[in-house]
């Protein structure tokens, strides 16, 4: 009889606290009830239901690893486990929560004024308001230091001009954290929906992250008061620290997509009969399942180790790069291999592996491409920067 949960073989739950297990279970139950019955249709139709935000907020999942202002204040491992369960549903769902909590909310929580925190964080934590993070530009992805968006002082105000690309939640966001070049270097600004000159246009015809809103932001003579500036963020270190928060969630999240793919392939192989016996009984199928399970277990343990280091305050950016590079790379290979076990049935939305594989194509390159993370790790190993 096949395992009902592939993680049982590792006895992973024994490594978690009761609170961590409770948060993981609550998130898994939410995904099972509110996401799984609909996700195939959402993916096929390119729908990202905005109403899920308040339900996620009610569960305490938005900005859950932040303290105060209506945030749950959980530890990093609990946040990671929630990301894992969300991405087991769909990468788009985890991306939504990640952008809301680790990019939009974290940028305000870490770099904002007390007035900005009080105004935005409780609403964002409840899902009553949505946020996005405007860093990437059409011509500057891996090299954000080259951004062309500019903010110029005009009396007491700032005037912003430029554009941002591939922005998750862009067109549905009530507030955008926008990064721009100023005479004093890169600074962050909070731009509210409806501000004259600010617009967001959805990107269509996607083959990946279809159940997620992806937009282009345009800023044409957007005038902002001085109070829109994030006062504590100066230079590129600000947005990069925010990205490191989001990348941590991906380390766990990618393992959710891997687990969901692996479990579905295991269940299918036990039920699918060829040559008068289940295909799970054939050596080549077992070899695939075993190799995938090994990589999943290793990725899961790596994620947990990094989570414990983050909770201890000892996690470095290079270690986050290790986790993102390995876990996304292995997750996409697991999803692709699981599809082969399902044969032709695996190319339909009736089964999740190919949907996960398509989504992971985006996860592989956003918030740092595999190549960028390879070079970050290479610099940590050798002491030499190969970026320039």
Helix-strand layout with pairing:
Blueprint: H1 18-35, H2 39-45, H3 52-58, H4 76-89, H5 91-111, H6 114-126, E1 131-134, E2 150-154, E3 157-168, E4 175-182, E5 185-192, E6 198-202, E7 214-224, H7 237-271, E8 273-274, E9 277-278, H8 283-312, H9 317-342, H10 353-363, H11 370-382
Helix pairs in contact: 1-4, 4-5, 4-7, 5-6, 5-7, 7-8, 7-9, 7-10, 8-9, 9-10, 9-11
Describe the structure.
With 388 residues, the chain is of the alpha+beta class. It has 3 domains: 6-126, Acyl-CoA dehydrogenase/oxidase, N-terminal domain (Butyryl-Coa Dehydrogenase, subunit A, domain 1); 131-228, Butyryl-CoA Dehydrogenase, subunit A, domain 2 (Beta Barrel); 237-382, Butyryl-CoA Dehydrogenase, subunit A, domain 3 (Up-down Bundle). It contains 11 helices and 9 strands. The strands form 3 sheets. The protein has a 4-stranded antiparallel sheet, covered by helices on one side. A 3-stranded mixed sheet has the order 1-4-5, with helices on one face. A two-stranded antiparallel ribbon has the order 8-9. Strand 2 (150-154) and strand 3 (157-168) form a beta hairpin. Helix 1 packs parallel to helix 4 (76-89), helix 4 (76-89) packs antiparallel against helix 5 and helix 8 packs antiparallel against helix 9 (317-342). The chain starts with 17 loop residues before the first helix and ends in a 6-residue tail after the last helix. The relative contact order is 0.12.
């Amino acid at each position: 009889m096949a395992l009902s949960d592939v993680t049982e073989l590792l006895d992973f739950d024994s490594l978690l606290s009761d609170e961590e297990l409770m948060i993981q279970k609550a998130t898994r139950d939410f995904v099972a009830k509110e996401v799984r019955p609909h996700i195939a249709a959402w993916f096929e139709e390119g729908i990202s239901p905005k109403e899920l935000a308040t339900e996620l907020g009610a569960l305490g999942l938005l900005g859950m690893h932040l303290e105060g202002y209506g945030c749950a204040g959980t530890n990093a491992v609990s946040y990671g486990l929630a990301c894992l369960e969300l991405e087991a549903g769909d990468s788009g769902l985890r991306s939504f929560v990640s952008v809301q909590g680790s990019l939009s909310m974290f940028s305000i929580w870490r770099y904002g004024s007390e007035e900005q925190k009080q105004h935005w964080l409780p609403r964002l934590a409840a899902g009553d308001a949505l946020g996005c993070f405007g860093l990437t530009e059409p011509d500057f992805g891996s090299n954000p230091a080259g951004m062309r968006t500019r903010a110029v002082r005009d009396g007491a105000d700032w005037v912003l001009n430029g554009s941002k690309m591939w922005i998750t939640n862009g067109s549905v966001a009530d507030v955008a954290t926008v990064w721009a070049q100023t005479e004093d270097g890169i600074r962050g600004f909070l731009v509210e929906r409806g501000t004259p000159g600010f617009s967001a246009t959805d990107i269509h015809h996607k083959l990946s992250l279809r159940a997620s809103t992806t937009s282009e932001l345009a800023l044409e003579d957007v005038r902002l008061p001085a109070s829109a500036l994030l006062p504590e963020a100066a230079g590129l270190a600000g947005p990069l620290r925010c990205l490191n928060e989001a990348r941590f969630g991906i380390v766990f999240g990618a393992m959710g997509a891997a687990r969901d793919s692996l479990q579905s392939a295991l269940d299918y192989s036990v039920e699918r009969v060829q040559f008068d016996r289940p295909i799970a009984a054939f050596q080549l199928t077992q070899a695939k399942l075993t190799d995938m399970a090994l990589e999943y277990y290793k990725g899961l343990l790596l994620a947990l180790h990094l989570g414990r280091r983050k909770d201890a305050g000892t996690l470095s950016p290079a270690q986050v790069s290790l986790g993102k590079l390995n876990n996304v790379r292995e997750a996409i290979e697991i999803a692709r291999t699981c599809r082969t076990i399902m044969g032709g049935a695996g190319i339909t939305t009736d089964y999740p592996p190919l949907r996960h594989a398509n989504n992971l194509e985006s996860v592989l390159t956003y918030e740092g491409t595999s190549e960028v993370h390879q070079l970050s790790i290479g610099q940590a190993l050798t002491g030499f920067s190969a970026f320039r």
